[in-house]
């Protein structure tokens, strides 16, 4: 019998555990200890990034700027858009299937009889791969939680919290103060924390003060960013030794997240150099975040806070007509997302998704209509929605493809397949 491939491993993990999300560190922590992940640092420095929105862009900019300064890096994010291998990059390169298989086999042996979810198994595999390489800097994106998230088995040298908003209510609840306390669980006493929101909930700041951490660096107070009116770019004002970087290029991602990324690196002891920062921000690419393909924009926004940011960006470029291809999971605030996007969407193209938390096109269409959206068409899957846009959208229309990583990932795959066919 041949050894399992990565695809077979992932399929088995999806079916093995009856619950896709099970918060708690007791099980995963025990296996991490057996793997040696908690006995020695996995990298020279570790930055952990939690929050409701902006985590992916912040991780990408931390990692990109670090590499521009000559550091070896590891960046762990989730979920992926098209390929599982996207979840871990070592110095900008994805790992081959064989590396992941080797890591999963190692975790499986260490697991013994301990029950682990898909996310816990794959997170431990990623951490083991990082520890094997010992990069100068590892940047870890926390999953939906914080305190009880599998990533939090690692003690970070710098903790970053981007935003606190409503999402994953079934697991984190609806109380923003409570959500903030969960996210704040990634902080460590005696180590700095960077808060990348101008409206951070009080519970996060109170948690930092109660530990206490080695400096609570808050956007808009201890550090900030602003448009540089004298030049074409923007300006970052750091704290402590008061470094200033001016004439920085727009990375195509939220500037608050860019400023937070620079502050995190500063707190991690990276001496930021103007030329390297400029070069890195000019080269940032993050699929699925305001990603344009001609007149189609793809963004994974799946809660009202993220959808509002998309709407604000789209309002800066008026369109003759804009259609939204929307596919969302059942546990999301669908009405809130539709309301946030309503000012920039003329008609809605609804698509169904697959999986245990998915909604059919009919179910989603009913909720979009209830929120006041004007329906144009329904399709069973995102690929069919992309084909409908090709066949029916006017050449001057814009399209927004959004609502879930599943929606955007499937749409990107369909677009790549079509491009390959026509090549």
Q: In words, what does this structure look like?
A:
By secondary structure, the chain is α/β, with parallel strands linked by helices. The chain folds into 2 domains: 6-282, UDP-N-acetylmuramoyl-L-alanine:D-glutamate ligase, CATH 3.40.1190.10; 291-422, Mur ligase, C-terminal domain (Protein-Tyrosine Phosphatase, Chain A, Alpha-Beta Complex), CATH 3.90.190.20. The protein has helices at residues 6-16, 26-35, 55-68, 97-111, 118-133, 169-172, 176-183, 202-210, 255-267, 274-282, 304-314, 334-341, 361-370, 382-392, 405-422; strands at 45-50, 73-76, 88-90, 93-94, 137-141, 158-161, 193-195, 216-218, 224-227, 234-237, 244-248, 291-293, 296-298, 322-326, 347-351, 375-379, 398-402. The chain has an 8-stranded mixed β-sheet, sandwiched between helices. A 6-stranded mixed β-sheet has the order 12-13-17-14-15-16, sandwiched between helices. A 3-stranded antiparallel β-sheet has the order 9-10-11, with helices on one face. The two termini are 38 Å apart. The mean pLDDT is 90.
SSE order and pairing:
Elements: H1 6-16, H2 26-35, E1 45-50, H3 55-68, E2 73-76, E3 88-90, E4 93-94, H4 97-111, H5 118-133, E5 137-141, E6 158-161, H6 169-172, H7 176-183, E7 193-195, H8 202-210, E8 216-218, E9 224-227, E10 234-237, E11 244-248, H9 255-267, H10 274-282, E12 291-293, E13 296-298, H11 304-314, E14 322-326, H12 334-341, E15 347-351, H13 361-370, E16 375-379, H14 382-392, E17 398-402, H15 405-422
């Amino acid at each position: 019998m041949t050894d399992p491939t990565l695809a077979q491993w992932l399929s088995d993990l999806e079916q093995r555990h009856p619950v896709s999300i099970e918060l708690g560190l007791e099980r995963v922590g025990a296996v991490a200890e057996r793997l040696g992940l908690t006995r020695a640092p996995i990298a020279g420095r570790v930055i952990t990034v939690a929050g409701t929105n902006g985590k992916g862009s912040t991780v990408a900019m931390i990692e990109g700027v670090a590499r521009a300064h000559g550091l070896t890096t590891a960046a762990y994010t989730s979920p992926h858009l098209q390929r599982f291998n996207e979840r871990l990059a070592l110095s900008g390169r994805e790992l081959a299937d064989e590396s992941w298989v080797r890591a999963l086999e190692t975790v499986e042996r260490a697991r013994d009889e301990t029950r682990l979810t898909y996310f816990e198994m794959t997170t431990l595999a990623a951490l083991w791969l990082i520890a094997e390489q010992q990069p100068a800097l590892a940047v870890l994106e926390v999953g939906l939680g914080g305190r009880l998230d599998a990533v939090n088995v690692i003690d970070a040298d710098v903790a970053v919290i981007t935003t606190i908003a409503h999402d994953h209510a079934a697991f984190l609840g609806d109380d923003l103060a409570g959500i903030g306390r969960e996210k704040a669980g990634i902080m460590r006493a005696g180590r700095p924390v960077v808060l990348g929101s101008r409206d951070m909930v009080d519970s996060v700041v109170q948690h930092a003060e109660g530990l206490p951490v080695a400096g609570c660096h808050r956007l808009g107070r201890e550090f900030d960013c602003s448009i540089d009116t004298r030049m074409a770019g923007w300006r970052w004002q750091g704290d402590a030794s008061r470094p200033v970087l001016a004439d920085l290029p727009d990375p195509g991602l939220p500037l608050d997240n860019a400023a937070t990324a620079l502050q995190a690196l500063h707190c991690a002891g990276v001496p930021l150099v103007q030329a390297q920062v400029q070069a890195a921000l000019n080269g940032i690419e993050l699929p699925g975040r305001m990603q344009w393909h001609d007149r189609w924009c793809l963004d994974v926004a799946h809660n009202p806070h993220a959808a509002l940011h998309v709407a604000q960006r789209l309002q800066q470029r008026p369109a003759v007509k804009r259609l939204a291809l929307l596919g969302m999971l059942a546990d999301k605030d669908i009405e809130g997302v539709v309301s946030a996007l309503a000012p920039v969407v003329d008609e809605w193209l609804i698509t169904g998704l697959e999986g245990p938390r998915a909604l059919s096109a009919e179910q989603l269409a009913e909720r979009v209509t209830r929120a006041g959206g004007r329906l144009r068409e329904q399709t069973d899957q995102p690929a069919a929605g992309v084909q409908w846009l090709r066949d029916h959208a006017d050449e001057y229309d814009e399209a927004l493809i959004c609502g879930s990583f599943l929606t955007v990932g499937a749409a990107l795959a369909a677009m790549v397949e079509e491009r390959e066919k026509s090549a």
